[in-house]
Write a structure and sequence with these properties.
Blueprint lengths: L1 H11 L8 H22 L4 H20 L12 H21 L8 H16 L6 H10 L1
Helix pairs in contact: 1-5, 2-3, 2-5, 3-4, 4-5
Length: 140
């Protein structure tokens, strides 16, 4: 899976950055909601996948709530730092099937898809917004 994520990063570099911080926030919360929905859906047939989905959803929602962007509650994480954190969240989602020993089961596809979506959104997001540029000008 790291190869797939790295491919998305490389292919995403030359692409236009079309996702604003606001769009990124909406997609973050939507991703967390999908993970929580996955936990509910998987609960009866695969408890390990349900727990993995719950953990990923909690991590995604927690990081989103702590990020300095529209929709963030605490603003403890700078938006530019989110690029690195998102790649970590993407890797975490991809690793969950192996980590919780359900890599040979069909629920693995859900985590792969979520991982790719997180990496894709990250690749299409403009992390150096107007506020960051103004801070850089003042520091210079």
């Amino acid at each position: 899976m790291p190869l797939l994520q790295k491919s998305i990063q490389v292919l995403g570099k030359p692409m236009p950055k079309v996702a604003s911080p606001k769009v990124h926030a909406v997609l973050d919360y939507a991703t967390a909601a999908l993970f929580f929905a996955g936990a509910i859906f998987f609960w009866r047939r695969n408890k390990r996948a349900a727990v993995a989905s719950l953990l990923c959803g909690a991590a995604q929602a927690g990081v989103a709530a702590l990020t300095d962007y529209p929709g963030g509650a605490k603003r403890a994480i700078s938006f530019p730092l989110r690029k690195k954190i998102d790649l970590g969240l993407s890797s975490m989602a991809a690793a969950m099937p192996r980590f919780l020993a359900f890599e040979d089961e069909k629920e693995k596809a859900f985590f792969r898809t979520q991982s790719v979506l997180i990496a894709g959104v990250t690749a299409l997001t403009e992390f150096k917004g107007r506020r960051v540029r103004e801070d850089e000008k003042r520091a210079a």
